[in-house]
Amino acid sequence: MTAEDAWAQYTVSNDTPLTREEQVTQLFESMRDSVYRYVLTLLREPAAAEEITQEVFLRLVRQHRAGRSVKNPRAWIFRVAHNMAVDEARTRKFRRSLDEKEWLELEESRRDTAPGPEESAAEAQQTRRWHVGLTSLPEQQRACLLLRSEGFRYREIAEILGVTISTVAESLRRAIRRMMKDSDA
User: How is the chain split into domains, by residue range?
Assistant: First the structure.
């Protein structure tokens, strides 16, 4: 797939090709929430996650204006977001867990529909178990699991994190095994 093929999917409903700026805008509108959630989960700081999310798309615009092609825009966006979050974490040395309020905010941002009371209680309990299991994972396993949950393929995750496909597969295998073990306990 060429860089132009990757961008060709972004058209308006009447199949009129969009300008590159319109394509970036469309990408921003469709991906900003998932990028924000990913960065928020890594940094645990809503303001920093919002700032990085916006900066990622600004960098995409700059990349385009500089005439540099992006072969896979979705993977590129998450790679840049990941790198910026890692840099920010190193700078701030974040090593704390989300407090209850922050976790609830993250949980709310992921909710698409309004569930009933029973479903809410079950979902809240499952989310708490997921949170405990997720925060206990090593950073690379957590990043692999989060990117996989966003629908990325192993190859794309490897590209985003700068590791091999076999490292992604092993990290996911270990993360899933640990999460399953923790959920049985």
Answer: 1-110, 113-185
CA 35 to chain centre: 4
- pLDDT at 37 exceeding the cut of 50: yes
Q: Among the listed ranges 9-18, 41-50, 149-158, which one has the minimum average pLDDT value? A: 9-18
CATH number (1.10.10.10, 1.10.10.60, 2.40.10.220, 3.40.50.300) of 113-185 reads 1.10.10.10
- Considering the chain, what is the average pLDDT of its residues? 81
DSSP 127-155: HHHHHHHHHHS-HHHHHHHHHHHTT--HH
pLDDT score at 94: 43
- pTM (global) more than 0.85: no
Tokens 């979050």 belong to which residue? Answer: 85
Distance CA 7, CA 180 (A): 38
- Quick one: pLDDT at residue 166? 96
Contact (CB, 8 A) for 23 and 76? no
- How far apart (Å, rounded) are the C-alpha atoms in residues 144 and 180? 16
137-to-15, 56, 152, 172, 182 alpha-carbon distances in Å: 44, 26, 19, 11, 11
